Amino acid sequence: xxxxxxxxxxxxxxxxxxxxxxxxxxxxxxxxxxLIASCAVNAHWLHAIVVNRDDIPKAExxxxxxxxxxxxxxxxxxxxxxYADLGVVNRVKGARLRQLVDANIVASTHGWxxxxxxxxxxxxxxxxxxxxxxxxxxxxxxxxxxACQGLLMAFEQGLGAxxxxxxxxxxxxxxKPPADWFPLYQLNxxxxxxxxxxxxxxxxxxxxxxxxLGKYGNPFRRDPKVVEELKKSRMLQAPAPLPGRKEExxxxxxxxNLPE
Length: 260
Known about the structure:
It is a single chain. By secondary structure, the protein is of the alpha+beta class. It has one domain (3-193): NADH Oxidase (3-Layer(aba) Sandwich), CATH 3.40.109. 45% of the residues lie in helices and 12% in strands. It has twelve helices and four strands; from the N terminus they run ααβααβααααβαβααα. Strands 1-2-4-3 form a four-stranded antiparallel sheet. Helix 2 crosses helix 8. The mean pLDDT is 97.
């Protein structure tokens, strides 16, 4: 798919074929997409642990369920647990920034050198940053950028996916992440049983309520011509609810032996 259609076609898929496994190469491609995402100070906070649903003991899987995501995690054959590695900056210090200097990515025209990294950037900027209350939020934001690239890669490969929260202590007992990894979200992956449209694009707030120009209170006005262009590229698609969605949900419920 072209990029605009890809992001327009993405849905939070909640009905997976529970018996159809996901190929390992497709999971690798999802993780490769995460790895090449842009990341502040080249820190790469995002880590992931991939777990096949069937490798989770039944009793533990039951404990993981809550009323919001119980069916999703039961149906999805693959779970990817995302974490932010909050200890990485002080562990590697300026090493990953020095890689950017050596690769001629950051240049002397902007003041960069290995000496600048070692004597200024790490001690005066990065280390104090890790002691700020805002540090986990900053790291989580960058992790979200990387996770989003992985999410889109899932759809580009014909898979379905849905992000959910997860019970970190139960998963930690199974996957043994380091103590300074901050749990973020779980990416549930599998082959969708829903139609491609999955009921239509989800309801969203009005554009002008979300985005502003110059200052808060001055809406960034939506250009109807741009909207039409995005409809033609299929980034903007028919909104929910689409005709036949209720019937589709009934069919899926019967197919999966779920309550209607």
